Amino acid sequence: MLESSKHKKQAEAFVKWMSGRKGQAVLREGDSFEYAIGNGEASNPKLEPISKLDAPKVEPSQLDSKKVTELMTAAGLL
Q1: Could you tell me if residue 65 is inside a domain?
Q2: Is residue 44 within 8 Å of residue 34, measured between CB atoms?
Q3: What's the confidence (pLDDT) of residue 58?
Q4: In this structure, is residue 72 part of a structural domain?
Q5: Is residue 25 part of a domain?
Q6: 15: helix, coil or strand?
Q7: What is the pLDDT of residue 76?
Q8: What is the tally of structural domains in the chain?
Q9: What is the pLDDT of residues 50-72, one digit of tens each?
């Protein structure tokens, strides 16, 4: 959560709910097609298992942190 967040209490409550059983049920059973975020929770069975996705390997130390900071600033996140 960003230091500049205006609704920290509400954001914390949302994250707690989303990572709990009811929030995970929404992700698993709803039509949002999002992967589960809770430990040991199953994702929507219509989703390709994460282990089968061909995600690119990213080395964080190789990212252009200046560019990332510029983009986040332009988006109003920093």
Answers
A1: no
A2: yes
A3: 77
A4: no
A5: yes
A6: helix
A7: 77
A8: 1
A9: 889 888 887 877 788 888 888 88
pLDDT at site 11: 94
Residues 6+ apart with CB under 8 A from 27: 18, 34, 35, 36, 37, 41, 43, 44
- Say which amino acid occupies 49: P
pLDDT < 70 regions, the chain: none
- Kindly give, in sequence order, each residue whose CB lies less than 8 Å from that of residue 47, ignoring residues fewer than 6 positions away: 33, 35
- Secondary structure (DSSP) of 46-67: TSPPGGGS-PPP--GGGS-HHH
Q: For residue 11, what are the domain limits? A: 7-47
Q: What's the pTM?
A: 0.58
Q: Give the residue carrying structure tokens 């089968």.
A: 52
